Amino acid sequence: MSARQEYVLPSQEALQNARSSLLTSIPTHGIGFEQAQRHLQKDIVPGFNGNSRSPRYYGFVTGGATPIATFADKLAVEEDQNVQVHLPNETVATNVEDSALRMLCELLQFDLSDWPHRTFTTGATASNVVGLACGREYVVAEAAKRAGISASIARDGLLEATRAANINKIQILTTVPHSSLRKAASIIGLGHASVIDVSSPSNPHHFSHEALKTALSTPNTASIIAISAAEVNTGLFATTGLAELTTLRSLADQHGAWIHIDAAFGLQARILPHDDNAAYQHLTAGVQGLELADSITGDAHKMLNVPYDCGFILTKNLPLAQQVFQNPSAAYLSIPAGSESSIASPLNIGIENSRRFRALPVYASLAAHGRAGYVDILERQVKLARAIAAYILAHPAYELLPLASDSSSPEGRLSKIYVIVIFRARDEELNGELVKRINGTRKLYVSGTQWEGRAAARFAVANWQVGVDRDLAIIKEVLEDVAR
Questions:
Q1: Residue of 118, 146, 248, 463 with fewest CB within 10 Å of its CB?
Q2: What are residue 264's phi and psi, to 5 degrees?
């Protein structure tokens, strides 16, 4: 095993060497290809962390690119297709993207006919922007329609459309939202304050239906219901079972609301076995009924282990998406007469006009691994997370979080573990340095977080290379040393 494989984080010496080698001004004549290549490989690369290479990087949910995804991404760079306009007589790039999205829907057990608007994005943040922008357009148009008039934010602008629809406020009703949801709300002109917590006092991850009904009934207000599946800090889901989604769907239809699912973190739980499999019942219940939503975001780098910078968005309303994202009066971007039009040009259904060929690694990965391959990866990740949680639960120096307030048995608590484990040291002094001490070994990496106002540490198991016995042995070794 090489040093770069053994250690998740670079040494301080490697970091310092990499920083000191960086050019601070552009050379007059350039250093040439070979010298630039050596500079990158010998000076810069040793200063990178192992977030993709190592199965023991448990911080950001990068996932790590599989060999086939890396190969396909290199092809995407070499061929450098501009995947924006569907030009079937010139390239198959958009056909590849369409096939990748079709296979992705099939993997997630979504009926293709229900999701005609599907496209790749730069990540879940961009997907949330697309989903909320579609929701914003829908709820204002729906309010106007109920008043017997027409209004469109895409056509008239936010102020004119809301004024015409007699809407004073657009609110996003949610529980424990990811920070990117607030960011997306700001980008589309609704603001951070539009994101409103309607969670249950006894369980902040779940909706209070009374609070939700009250908020939906606010006069002169249009609503987007945003569901977290799952929440990134704990891995817990906001809904449980088809009945709850059916209730939310009924409330949304009654009040002209849009249901948006931020599933960047938990959507892949839909591929877990769920035929009377007690091991995954809690997880599969958390993603049951998502097909009743209007829009769903996902992250392919988390779910499919393709390179970073690859999200996707699915919505049920293609004409509405084209209304929001259409490039108007751009003759040079038009599809030539006589070309097939069954595939929408990506630039008219998403944010970007200039788009890299991020669909190729997705296509290659789905082809190479298939459903069984991805089920195997996810099951190994869940198994390792639960093994880590079981070890922490039994260790006198550590405390597994969230604390069980419902007197759950150890088995019950472990059954709720997805791929996230948060914990803290019982000793306050140790807890204050827990993350620093763990990461200081360079053998694994955890992120720092908080629970109920106190510092905590967090494992996020996401890499495709997970080896349960191998990785658990190293984790135990590190945590035992830290505890001592």
A1: 146
A2: -60, -30
Asked if 402 contacts 340 with a C-beta cutoff of 8 angstroms, the reply is no
Q: For the domain 366-483, what is the CATH code?
A: 3.90.1150.10
Q: Domain coordinates of the chain in residue numbers?
A: 81-356, 366-483
Contact indicator for 224, 215 with CB cutoff of 8 Å = no
**Residues in contact with 331: Cβ distance below 8 Å, sequence separation at least 6, in sequence order:** none
Task: Report pLDDT digits (tens) over 331-380.
Answer: 556 666 555 568 999 999 999 999 999 999 999 999 999 999 999 999 99
Q: Does domain 81-356 correspond to CATH entry 3.40.50.1820?
A: no
Q: Lowest-pLDDT range, 50-64, 220-234, 358-372?
A: 50-64
* Residue in 424, 423, 401, 425 with CA at minimum distance from that of residue 413: 401
What pLDDT does residue 397 have?
96
Whole-prediction pTM: 0.92
